[in-house]
Amino acid sequence: MSFSLFALQVLNGVEQGLLLFLVASGLTLVFGVLGVLNFAHGSFYMLGAYLAYWIAARTGSLLAAVLIGVPVMALLGLVVERLAIARLYKRDHLSQVLLTYGLVLLFNELQRALFGNDVHGVDTPTVLAFRIPLGSAQEWPAYRVFTAVACILVAAAMRQVILRTRFGMRVRAGASNAEMVEALGIDVRKLFSVLFSAGTALAALAGMLAAPLTTVYPGMGEGVLVLSFVVVVIGGIGSIKGAFLGALLVGLSDTFGKVLLPGFSSAVVYAVMAAVLLLRPRGLAG
Amino acid sequence: MIARILLVAGALALLAVGFSGDRFWLQFMGKAMIGCIFAMSLDLLVGYTGLVSLAHAAFFGLAAYLLAGLSNAAGFVNPLATLPICLAGAAAAALVIGWLSLRAAGVYFIMVTLAFTQMFYYLFNDAPGLGGSDGLYVQERPRFLGLDFSERTTAYFAIWIALVIVYLLLLRMLRAPFGHVLVGIRANEQRMRSLGYPTRRYKLTAFVIAGTLAGLCGYLDATLYGFVNPAQFSWRQSGLVLMTVLLGGKGTLYGPALGALLLTFVEHYGERVTEHWNALIGALVIAVVLFLPRGLAGLLRD
Amino acid sequence: MSLSRRTFLGATAASFAAGRVFAASKAKIRIGLLLPYSGTYAALGNNITDAMKLVAGKLGNKLGGREIEWVAVDDESDPAKAPANVNKLISGEKVDILTGPVHSGVAMAMMQIVRQEKTLTIVTNAGAQAVTGQLCAPNVFRTSFSNWQTSYPCAEVMLKDGRKKAVLMFWNYSFGQESMAAFKEGYSKGGGTIVKEIAVPFPQTEFQANLSEIASLKPDAVFVFFAGAGAAKFVKDYADAGLRDKIPLYGSGFLTEGVLGAQGAAAEGIKTTLHYADSLDNGPNKKFRAAFKEATGREADVYAVAGHDTVHVLAQALDKVQGDTSAQKELIAALESVRLDSPRGPFRFSKAHNPIQNIYLRQVKGGKETVIGIAQKEAEDPAFGCAMVK
Amino acid sequence: MLSGELRATAGRVRLRGADVTHFPPDRLSRMGVGRSYQTANVFPELTCEECMWLAAQSRAHTSMIFFSPAARIAGAERALQACGLMARRSTRAGELSYGEQRQLEIGMVLATEPSLLLLDEPLAGLGHDEASRIVALLREVARDRTLVLVEHDMDAVFSIADTVTVLVGGRVLERGSPEQIRASPAVREAYLGTEQP
What we know:
The structure holds four protein chains of four kinds. By secondary structure, chain B is an all-alpha fold. Chain B is built from 13 helices and four strands. Chain B has a two-stranded antiparallel ribbon with strand order 1-4. In chain B, a hairpin with a 2-residue loop joins β2 (143-144) and β3 (147-148). Chain C is α/β, with parallel strands linked by helices. Chain C folds into two domains: 25-145 and 281-349, 3-Layer(aba) Sandwich (Rossmann fold), CATH 3.40.50; 148-274, Rossmann fold (3-Layer(aba) Sandwich). In chain C, the strands form two sheets. In chain C, strands 7, 8, 9, 10, 11, 12, 13, 14 and 15 form a nine-stranded mixed sheet that branches. Chain C has a six-stranded mixed sheet with strand order 2-3-1-4-5-6, with helices on both faces. Chain D is globular, with a radius of gyration of 18 Å. Helices cover 38% and strands 15% of the residues of chain D. In chain D, α2 packs across α3 and α4 runs parallel beside α5 (128-142). Chains in contact: A-B, A-C, B-C, B-D. Chains A and C meet through α1, β2 and α10 of A and α2, β8, α7, α8 and α9 of C.
């Protein structure tokens, strides 16, 4: 592999990892603070992508889709938390897994009923519909650069919120000891609702940003969900920093797996995960 | 006492189906009974040891593929040879996956087992010579001493015997010291450790036993249908059996078996009622989790 | 008294016997549909079903004089559930004729059982080679295509265009693998060289790493197999990476079927081969497309055409045997002699019971699939390993 | 840390001369270190008898027996007797009073036949009667075993202990027999305050 090709592949891996981070960060936050393993997280990603398609097709603008869609999904997250997830906080993991698995089935049907089974494309915003030449042969669509930058911005913003705001302080306290937070007189229920809704919005935002890149199709959430699990496991549950590192590692190992071990590339990611677990059973940041 | 009579009556009723000779019901109930064994074996982990594993389908699929491989490539048809090999294969896989996964506790364990299931799925889906997503036929199904297990009746009785043996075996195991230790681990693992139990070793043993039984299910399934496919490895299958255990009532052994039977029938008749069959299942799962956490067995006891 | 009693008994017996004959010819004919109505391929299952019901309706809902009773099972495109679903239709519902499925893994499970049970079966989509190859059986027909048919002819097209060095890229599942094998067969025979084969795990849709690789390899052309969501994504990524104008893209027709809208301008100029195109200019096609649109509000597609042809094929053959499905030998002979003027052009069965049909060369122009020629006239699948072909 | 549940950041833990700093709790238990927790830590779903059984079984080397039913173990019976819960043997541990749960827990530790017991505030949260019952039990236990007791109830400590170490802010303030401690002005000032007996 020539150096320029190698550099290009690194770029591809990082870009893939960044998008994955956006999904996984919501998952890890919700788990870290609420203690709920949310299988429906992938469904929020999928619904986000479908909303992006649906709104963009009507308004002609992806930006409008994000501005309308993200609040809608945050609201959906709030409703789901109140109706279903809130009943799970004191329950075992089995109940959590199954209830959210049931939600996955329901959301799949919801998507079928609302949007049908077809595959849809979403146009990239016209401002970003140009390409940046890379090397002699290949070009990179500007939109990919945009999503990568957007993901980094979201990551930075999350870091600021968690480290510098009152809300973030409560989130950190909640992640380390939920009972303590309750004892301090903070309304944990409200904190949990807001956080779950934020996690949902993050997943949906990732789906919306990814929509022009991946196209929109039924079942798109499940592959992302399993990969996000791998990211969270590698990174260490509840750790945003870990999720960031994990996502980059997964993105890179998937990219290089495809090039170096074609035919078994999908198993590479899981092998990496097994290796990390062997060395650090609680994840990179755990 | 009443429960015991009901169980015996149920077993005899299942046995009676074997004499009906009806080709549909033989295969239908055969599949349902395999589901019973599958759910009971998972209950050993979920209900008794407190381990929520999503790797169960992997062992099922692995044993099924092993049988297909032994039959197609090596021409092995004698179950006295193929059954031990397939079970050993499932057990070995369970040992490796269990050893790795049990390094992680609680929710990590769930995610890691899920990831391993996916890995197995891709390995079997992508590996050359395994038929890819089309799957494989078991060209020559097990037969010996004039018994041909591609005959539905013969296969049915074999499955029935397996079901009865597995039930009695698990029952006995749970009443033995080993079973008590598992229950202790589920109830309070920290305490078990401070009492001097190397709990991980016990959990791993339970994981391997359950995985081996899941392998038995795969073996029986491949024998009954003569067809194996990577979809049998998919995490949806693992999710489904987990749901069966909860629906039936975890930690009761007979409950999950009951759940498997019920779900087979619901699936058979439910599909005619509505096209949105999966939404129905989804709603059912949510309802069971929220309103019936002890499952059908809990209902029966009250 | 005794006489009249005997007469009465005799009369009853006679009428009973007559009744049975009558019932055999007039009882409803049960047609099983093993198709996906949920999951990724639900749209395909719905189109096949709607087309079948549409055509049956035009024929008075009767085949060979017997009223049709449909028995549909949602196979969810899940091969793990397939054996149980097939059992349900054959042993449980006792259908006279089984049709379906879309997913070839489901088809393989189905073949295993129908070869044993001898149920008359019409495969309406799945293109697995084995169905009319290694596993071919007198009681199994296919009205769709074999994977070979959709890819082999494209090799010649590429060579004629002067593209002698190609990269292959495909989803690593049986549909993709078989399509590639067929293409390679034709391409090497014609003197082309394959620079690299890239297998992408199904159903992954992350292609960037491989696109970078293609860009560095600089072949004359790329031949791909993707379908559905993967096809939509790949074509867009390919154009986004700036490769569309540098290295022309060829593929089996499924690369653009049903996803042209999602692909948009990125699909412009792609050449594909398939046994059908929406824009085929013939009477039956125009008629069928109009009727389908009117009945369902949707555009007909290659899947609907398979449904359309399935019912016409059955109608022709069952008319010949007066609807008597128990006379299977005669019915099979009747099916083998079917000639159809299908929306896809002339249609008849090969000895292996796969359609002999034209494979069209299509190109995307102005966002529309246009037929620019026939890639292979009356293409017949080689039916490797089929015992019925001598 | 002593019982292996928390990892030491520095220093060494020695047991009979062997370095056991990084030993897991189950291994320490098998070496004869029994422990109880600050809050009662039992198996709420199991009966007293079953709890005792599990504890005694851990020393029986037969726990990997799969197919013969669990038999009664003499050690379990003895421990039930010793902690005074014979009458409650088939009550679920979760349904016991808090004091009884403590009794049960000490009984479980005894059933593992330890040579060294680590007890973390065994009297915390107990009423006067219950506490005196536990103190009596502990005095009995201490006769032929080493007992390490962490406790704030000084009366109880003085009545059981041979050696008392007073820790203030993580530092050893004074160490000696109960009499010496009682007499120590430093301890009196730092800990007992005006509450002098």
